[in-house]
Write a structure and sequence with these properties.
By secondary structure, the chain is an alpha/beta fold. 30% of the residues lie in helices and 25% in strands. Helix 1 packs antiparallel against helix 2 and helix 2 packs across helix 4.
């Protein structure tokens, strides 16, 4: 579990790449500059850790491209102390970014292998989510709702209704919607039944699977 000056230098280069691609939120850039992404990957792939690309991890999943993580996080407009629900813990990297920014994170993962690995690994790095849950992300987490924001880190063929209903008024849901290619979509809850929707172009994610536990 080493984090060297070399790694820190590579992270700063990554931050510069993200700035050049249009990421401007200082807190997001700072979090990505602080988190040792190489520790979230198998040691054989360390050279790839600070390139701006997705990479395979256990259970046929991927650790998202840093630009995608930064883009989704920027859309959330995270404030310190925000209560955030993450659907798809995966490697835990996105969760670490949110914790680093001072959010209270509740995260759900449906792959048992990843869930076990990440729930041990994140606290060892000093990133403590409020709750890591093994379960079905389509259902959200009703007992902890409402949330300031919800982030979905897998491609959803449709927008799960429970997620919209578990947002606070003023809350934001960031979700990639679509089958093969997803459109990054932001929903802002304006009232009890009123949502504002914005779309931000195409991304590719592994699919969000329902009821597969």
């Amino acid at each position: 579990m080493k984090d060297t000056f070399k790694h820190k230098g590579l992270r700063q280069q990554l931050v510069n790449i993200l700035k050049n691609k249009g990421i401007s939120n200082d807190a997001v850039l700072k979090a990505i500059g602080n988190i040792p992404r190489h520790l979230f990957m198998d040691s054989g792939f360390l050279d790839h850790a600070y390139q701006d690309k997705a990479f395979p991890i256990a259970a046929d999943q991927t650790i998202s491209q840093p630009y995608t993580v930064a883009f989704q996080t920027e859309l959330l407009q995270v404030k310190k102390g925000d209560k955030i629900l993450e659907i798809g813990t995966g490697s835990g990297y996105q969760c670490a970014v949110l914790c680093e920014m001072g959010a209270k994170v509740f995260s759900i993962e449906r792959q048992q292998e990843l869930f076990k690995k990440t729930s041990k690994f994140l606290p060892r790095l000093g990133y403590r989510a409020k709750k890591l849950i093994f379960g079905d992300g389509y259902k959200g987490l009703l007992e902890e709702a409402p949330f300031d924001s919800i982030i979905v880190t897998a491609g959803a063929p449709f927008v799960p209704k429970p997620l919209l209903s578990q947002l606070k008024v003023g809350g934001r849901l960031v979700i990639p919607v679509g089958d093969d290619v997803q459109i990054m979509t932001l929903f802002i809850r304006k009232g009890q039944k009123e949502f504002e929707q914005h779309e931000f172009g195409e991304f590719r994610f592994v699919p969000l699977l329902e009821d597969k536990n």
